[in-house]
Amino acid sequence: MKVEPDPMDKNQTEEVREFVLAGFSHRPHIEKGLFVLFLFFYVSTWVGNVLIMVTVASDKHLNSSPMYFLLGNLSFLDLCYSTVTTPKLLADFLDNEKLIPYDQCIMQLFFLHFVGAAEMFLLTVMAYDRYVAICRPLHYTTIMSRGLCCALVAASWMGGFVHSTVQTILTIHLPFCGPKQVDNFFCDVPPVIKLACGDTFVIELLMVSNSGLISTSSFVVLVSSYTTILVKIRSKEGRRKALSTCGSHLMVVTLFFGPCIFIYARPFSTFSVDKLVSVLYNVITPMLNPLIYTLRNKEVKSAMQKLWDRSGLTWKI
């Protein structure tokens, strides 16, 4: 049971001005090894996602296609999502104290949910794009116009902003007067609100309902969309092509939504594997997305080859 702060002490809620991130280890030799590993992950994330964005922007065919326009936006979101947490994690590997000021903690929490929710909504938009392309091919270019694509991307960002604003407002109204250690390597809603001094039952329920509902409902919509696509296609050849086209999307959806549902859809409980699961969707998935899309997509690989050839270098994918 949490201890209620003394209402007579006006400074109770001002005592905690910084938090301590638990991190992964307090052994310097292990931390240095992890620094090298996660630096590799972060650099790979930047190289892969920037390469996709440059390829889509420089190729007229890809740039005019709704699917690749959305893919370029997904790569940008992956870069943002990884950058919210990974630079601080890398710095903490070289810092024994692992301190984060209260304001920076709240900012990290805000942008984590802002970009994360926007990516969930964008993946749902990409599923709709595939549905229209496969089930209504003759009307695809008319329905998925550039104007609609831009509006859907803007709506994804707006949805993420609204979701994150709600989460952040609920968090900053909580009193924090100790303890100070956040049981993760970044500030997120579940571990931060567990440090509050007051009763957080209702707020925790609202937060879990918010995040858990968005991740679970989006995942159900995505799986239903891809299932509908496969059911509507009768021929074996058409189904094979649909599986090839949607396979990369399904892999990304599983890698991203699986850990999110595990973390946010279960109220009032923590597990020892939460930290490792957080690594999966914060660090690993943004790095793997470019590989998943390029290795399974001949058009992207061909466009990358042309881009490389124009640079005057020799390279074969």
From TrEMBL:
Q: Where are the transmembrane segments?
A: 34-56, 68-86, 106-128, 148-166, 212-231, 243-264, 276-295
Q: What topology does the record note for this protein and the membrane?
A: Multi-pass membrane protein
Q: Which UniProt keywords apply?
A: Cell membrane, G-protein coupled receptor, Membrane, Olfaction, Receptor, Sensory transduction, Transducer, Transmembrane, Transmembrane helix
What are the subcellular locations of this protein? Cell membrane
The record's section on CDD domains has:
7tmA_OR4Q2-like (cd15938)
Main location class: membrane
Residue span(s) of domain G-protein coupled receptors family 1 profile? 48-293
> Entry's InterPro entries?
GPCR_Rhodpsn, GPCR_Rhodpsn_7TM, Olfact_rcpt, Olfactory_Receptors
GO cellular component terms listed in the entry, alphabetical order: plasma membrane
Q: Which PANTHER family match?
A: OLFACTORY RECEPTOR
Task: Please explain the role this protein plays, according to its UniProt record.
Answer: Putative odorant or sperm cell receptor.
Q: Give the family this protein belongs to, as stated in its UniProt record.
A: Belongs to the G-protein coupled receptor 1 family.
Name by which UniProt lists this protein: Olfactory receptor
State the organism's lineage: Eukaryota, Metazoa, Chordata, Craniata, Vertebrata
Q: Which gene encodes it?
A: LOC100624131
